[in-house]
Amino acid sequence: MRSLLRGESAVWALLVCLSVAMAAVSFGYGITKEGGQVGPGFLPLVSGVALAVLSAALLTQSVRRTQETSEEEVDPARIRTLWTVFGLLLVALLLVPLLGFLVAFGLLVFAVSAFVEKRRVLPAAGVAVAATLVIYAVFVLFLAVPLPGGLLGVGGDG
User: Fold this and answer.
1) Is the pLDDT of residue 73 over 70?
2) In which band, very low, low, confident or very high, does the pLDDT at 39 lie, cut at 50, 70 and 90?
3) What is the CB neighbour count within 10 angstroms for residue 12?
4) How many Cβ atoms from other residues are within 10 Å of residue 86's Cβ?
5) pLDDT for residue 49 is more than 80
6) Could you give phi then psi for residue 120, rounded to 5 degrees?
7) Distance between alpha carbon 76 and the CA centroid of its chain, in Å?
8) CA-CA distance, 119 to 14, in Å (whole number)?
9) Where are the membrane-spanning stretches (predicted)?
10) Are 30 and 40 in contact (CB under 8 A)?
11) Would the pLDDT of 125 be above 90?
12) 32 forms bridges with which residues in the sheet?
């Protein structure tokens, strides 16, 4: 059972590294624009830092649990779910340059909702569309942050 917890710790450690890299790359996009406006790198920076902090906290918790666990039962389905979501996140990040942030994000939310959470297709699509519209409204319309549009040019990339 300890090996399952070590696997969970490895996922959190990998997610910490990925999110720190995401935050570091965001500086290349520009955190602010002229006049002090929020730039296109602001979202990846904030997301990367927040994800790194949360992942580091969960990594710490997982390592402590690994040290305390001797014969406790660990649910293998939970570990499998964690790896699945991590894989889907990686695929979504790889799709951003091709499809744009909003489309990749919408597909990620749909995939997690439909395949991980096992929701029916129509409600999962509704959740994905609603989440994508909220992200668009907050970042593009309200904060005027141009999101990467990818080859499709979707998302307010400026």
Assistant:
1) no
2) confident
3) 21
4) 15
5) yes
6) -65, 160
7) 22
8) 28
9) 42-61, 82-115, 121-145
10) yes
11) yes
12) 38
